[in-house]
Write a structure and sequence with these properties.
67% helix, membrane, single chain, mainly alpha, Yip1_dom, Protein YIPF, transmembrane, transmembrane helix
């Protein structure tokens, strides 16, 4: 009984006080952080990048997307690195050119600019929602990016029509405008479907392409029926 009382009176971890870690005992494992992950994060960090380099990089990215639209093919360039800067510039440019010669008149110019702006963005949003409801695999902003960038051919058509209308509104000028608008309408439709068609289920591609056709048709009709104010 005395021995049991002596053992119970000893501290629970009394024996550990005599144990010392020798420097000769190797310690397994590594506690250092791999340098590869840090260098990779530093490479992709743009916090210390000059503003000039950031602007030039973004302009180059927008220019490459314009090239992909003018030479449409099945590519993920517009879907991988999407942005809305290009669509915004194209939308504002097209709305300003459709505004006609009444830019100084708030009663005539203001609502026309707002009308074009709302039609383009509201139409793109409706097409995107339709694509998502049909089971599309791309995101909301990726679809807006593609639809906005594919307005580029129609913007070029509007510029050509403005130049043609400098010679007056005749039958010849109307035919030239008609050919240009139809060609650019087809270009925009083909370019957008080249990027968006593969993201839809095979049995629902027609339901996804039809609203795109109507979207660019409305914009083309606005361009074709445009007449500069006197």
């Amino acid at each position: 009984m005395a021995e049991a009382e002596d053992e119970s009176s000893k501290p629970l971890f009394a024996g550990l006080a005599d144990v010392s870690i020798s420097e000769d005992i190797p310690v397994e494992g590594e506690i250092t952080v791999p340098m590869g992950s840090q260098s990779q994060e530093e490479d992709y960090s743009t916090l210390d990048e000059p503003v000039k380099d950031t602007i030039l990089r973004d302009l180059k990215a927008v220019g490459k997307k314009f090239v992909h639209v003018m030479y449409p093919k099945k590519s993920t360039a517009l879907l991988r690195d999407w942005d809305l800067w290009g669509p915004l510039v194209l939308c504002v440019t097209l709305a300003l050119m459709l505004q006609g010669g009444s830019a100084n008149s708030k009663e005539e110019g203001g609502p026309q600019f707002a009308e074009v702006f709302v039609i383009i963005w509201f139409g793109a949003i409706v097409i995107t929602l339709n694509s998502k409801l049909l089971g599309g695999t791309i995101s909301f902003f990726q679809s807006l990016c593609v639809l906005g960038y594919c307005i580029l051919p129609l913007t070029v058509a509007m510029l050509v029509c403005r130049l043609v209308l400098l010679g007056g509104t005749t039958v010849v000028t109307f035919i030239v405008r008609l050919v240009v608008v139809i060609s650019m309408f087809a270009w925009s439709t083909v370019a957008s479907t080249a990027f968006l068609a593969d993201s839809q289920p095979p049995n629902r591609k027609a339901l996804a392409v039809y609203p795109i056709f109507l979207f660019y048709f409305v914009i083309s009709w606005m361009i074709l029926t445009f007449t500069p104010s006197s």
